[in-house]
Write a structure and sequence with these properties.
The protein is an alpha+beta fold. The protein has helices at residues 18-22, 31-37, 68-75, 93-103, 122-141; strands at 45-52, 57-63, 83-90, 108-110, 113-114. It has five helices and five strands, in the order ααββαβαββα.
Length: 142
């Protein structure tokens, strides 16, 4: 798959190449970028999945920096250290988080926390996480 803004190869799960994703200045002055992804490139960030090992709960959240930076905030409320399971760079992290919360609503436990059935492995949760993000990207493309 080709990047929407240059001729570089983009990963299938993304609409943009790694170089454009990591360097928003490459996209300055391109109305296509701003109109497609929101009012400002500052909405870009990370969607992460954190596991509470004691209660077997998962937190889906967003951060403008890496998911690791949010672990300190989560640690303050948990008796055991949470584990960062997965994180993905996205353009509009607030909308992506909202879509994932809706996508996993049947597993909703409390606020940003989700409880999956015991037969769901971490690998299957991560796969569903990626599917939810791909669904988000397809909706944004319309």
């Amino acid at each position: 798959m080709k990047c929407k803004y240059c001729d570089n190869d983009a990963a299938p799960a993304y609409l943009i190449c790694k170089e454009c994703l990591q360097n928003p200045k490459r996209l300055e002055g391109r109305k296509k970028f701003l109109s497609r992804w929101g009012d400002s490139p500052k909405q870009a960030g990370w969607i992460y999945l954190v596991k509470d090992p004691l209660h077997k709960l998962y937190k889906i959240g967003y951060s403008y920096t890496h998911g690791e930076s949010r672990l300190d905030d989560v640690r303050a409320f948990l008796p055991l250290d949470p584990v960062l399971i997965h994180e993905v760079r996205v353009y509009d992290c607030r909308k992506a988080e909202s879509v994932l919360h809706r996508y996993f609503r049947r597993f909703h436990y409390n606020r940003e926390w989700f409880k999956f059935p015991f037969w769901y492995s971490e690998k299957s949760i991560i796969q569903k996480f990626e599917i939810g993000l791909n669904e988000f990207k397809l909706k944004r493309g319309k």
